[in-house]
Structures are given as C-alpha cells and as structure tokens.
Amino acid sequence: MSVEAEVVGEIGPGLLVLVGVTHHDDRGVATRVAEKVANLRVFADEAGVMNRSLLEIGGQALVVSQFTLYGDTSRGRRPSWIGAAPPEVAAPLVDAFAEYLRDLGLVVETGAFGADMQVELTNDGPVTLSLELEKRG
Fold this sequence. Notes:
Layout: E1 2-3, E2 6-7, E3 14-19, H1 27-39, E4 43-44, E5 50-52, H2 54-57, E6 60-65, H3 87-103, E7 107-110, E8 117-118
Parallel strand pairs: 3-6, 6-7
Antiparallel strand pairs: 1-2, 1-8, 4-5
C-alpha cells in the first residue's frame, strides 16, 4: 500500500482488512472484531478445507481505514457518508483494532488514516467477508 508513491504498509500472506467505523462503535467493538478476525478459520488446512486461522498460519494483517464501507446508496445517485463515524472518533478505533491484533501476536501493517492510498491486493482464494458485530446493550 502506498501514499504519494511511498510504500506505507506491506505484508506477506495474510489478510487485507478494510475497517469501517460507525457511530455506535467503541473500543469494545474494536477488540471483539480484532479477536474475530484473528481467529476466523478462512485458510486451508492440509486437506484443503478452510479450517485454519490467521493466528494458526502465522499470517499478517494489512489494516486499512475505509469509511466508504458505510456509504449509503439507498437514495439518489450519490452515496451518503452519514453512517460513518467522524475522523476524530474513527481514527483512534482503527488504531485500537490494529493494536489489539498486535497484542494477539500478529504482524500488522497499517495505512495512513485519511490519506488517498493505493492498495494492491493479490487475492489468493475465493474469500471476501463482511464482518459486523451487533451492538451490545
């Protein structure tokens, strides 16, 4: 991943994690999602079955803040970003998410929050997931 032609984050085998933050998210959500991401069984085992996690394979994570995940296109032709948390709320939560992945023992690289990033991906397999946790009362 690069910003203005300078590489700011690069990983080997692992996951590209696009992180969107909405208004009800907090540090608890960030840690629960990080735990889920680290332990999702989406990598093949010896039998070719998706049965191994990022932690189990010693994989890495490239974490990219992506407010556009909360773009609402239900009305009109221009997306609304009202569902995305403002930068002063989102940036610390994206950082907390990445830090918790590190605390779990993963190598984590991050983008530059708010920057126009060029992200390159080699998708090795058929898996793209959207993960969202319900708000806990």
